[in-house]
Design a protein that fits this description.
By secondary structure, the chain is mostly helical. It contains ten helices and two strands. Helix 3 runs antiparallel to helix 6.
Length: about 280
């Protein structure tokens, strides 16, 4: 069952039919953003106190968060449009102003680029700030996927193969029909893989790893490189059971998200190699 609006959730929990037309996806993403912003602010302040970020960062977390949020919103919609060009060509305005249809990965990419530009213009070390926001970015992505699950925005998986389900696993964790989803799609039983749940769980695990590693004596940029590898790997493999359209690349079928994820992994591995080498070389950040 999906709950596109707050009124749907309240009705399911209490039986009350209240006029609360607030989108659950937006509410959840906003909550995820505020939580991740707080985590980022705490970590940036800690890095300043231990001397990894030179000048006092002041209100950088709030300003950075606003810029990343705005750029992320544009990127999330832009990536979704690129993934569904045929639908966009048929009815562009409807897709542009739709209440559903966002690519979380597009939001991460656009937000990261805009954030790096802002940090550089503030005269702060980009790689050090990236280390500071890496755990928060992973946490925000994981929590944001809850909004996809609750609202049923279409970011679900392919038809679930029930013959492969482990006996100990609850059926709802293997297949869901997302009745009343905001995308308006009817899903035949037994349903599709609830990939937003998987991404939330994997994202929280990755956040835990990044949070545990943040105080280790790593070279600047190492933690963010690890974040790129973790986030890219998680998304690359989840795409194997996602419904996103695929393109042919070097004779192989891959989704847009897999291509971007492969690039993130490559940059992350490059960053890890640069920050762990006995004779480190500079990356362009």
């Amino acid at each position: 069952m999906a709950f596109p609006y707050l009124s749907d959730l309240v009705r399911a929990l209490t039986g009350l039919n209240l006029p609360l037309p607030l989108p659950m996806f937006g509410l959840t993403v906003a909550a995820a953003f505020l939580v991740s912003l707080r985590v980022a602010a705490l970590e940036i302040q800690r890095l300043h106190e231990v001397g990894r970020i030179g000048p006092a960062p002041g209100g950088i977390a709030g300003e950075l968060g606003l810029i990343v949020a705005l750029a992320g919103f544009v990127g999330a919609r832009a990536f979704h449009i690129v993934e569904h060009l045929q639908e966009f060509t048929a009815d562009p305005w409807s897709m542009i102003f739709s209440r559903s249809g966002f690519s979380m990965l597009g939001g991460v990419v656009f937000g990261a680029i805009a954030g790096a530009i802002y940090v550089r213009r503030r005269g702060l070390p980009v790689r050090a700030v990236c280390d500071g926001v890496a755990p928060a970015a992973m946490l925000g992505y994981a929590l944001g996927r809850i909004g996809c699950q609750v609202s049923g925005d279409g970011d679900w998986g392919i038809a679930a193969n029930m013959s492969l389900k482990p006996a100990w696993l609850p059926s709802w964790l293997w297949a869901q029909t997302y009745d009343n989803n905001i995308a308006g799609v009817a899903i035949a039983p037994p349903g599709v893989y609830p990939t937003p749940i998987y991404e939330t769980l994997l994202g929280l695990a990755a956040f835990g790893l990044l949070w545990a590693a943040r105080k280790h004596p790593y070279r600047t940029g190492w933690l963010f490189a690890l974040y790129l590898v973790l986030s890219g790997t998680e998304r690359f493999f989840i795409e194997l059971i996602r419904v996103n359209p695929h393109v042919q690349l070097f004779g192989l079928a891959a989704s847009q998200a897999q291509i971007v994820s492969a690039v993130l992994i490559a940059f992350g591995l490059l960053g890890l190699a640069a920050s762990t080498s006995s004779r480190p070389w500079r990356l362009p950040l």
